[in-house]
Amino acid sequence: MKTKTLLSVFFICAIGLTIASLPMSSLAISAEENDISIKRGEKIVMNYCALCHGGEDGKLSGKMMDDIPKLVGTIHTSNITNNTEKGIGKYTKEQSRVLLRTRVKAYG
Ligand code: HEC
What pLDDT does 31 receive? Predict the structure, then answer.
């Protein structure tokens, strides 16, 4: 019984350590990329994401959410344009998929 318990604990730890040591790049997230899926994505972005991420420049450059109660604090939406410094332009397609599905950033 004791050996069985010890073996179980060892097995669970081994699985945990294996998962923890997986590099982020091993998160293979696939997405369809065709005319229909791109049109559908544009529609979602313009009707949903742009409400919060739409900046004064008409792009998804982010803005201050001034309708948030002051009690909560000041909240800015992120710049999700392909700008390489302020946006997510340095992301590879794979890194973008991981960010959009998991909120895990590519650079920490
Ligand atoms: C209700 C407002 C709101 C909507 C709608 C919204 N977002 Fe956001 N989003 C935010 C806020 C606020 C942040 C910043 C949160 C933070 O810094 O923790 C954010 C952060 C992000 C980030 C992280 C960027 C980074 O570099 O950290 C991505 C990517 C993102 N949003 C994509 C989207 C997409 C795609 C949609 C539409 C499907 C969307 N968001 C809709 C408010 C919104």
Answer: 85
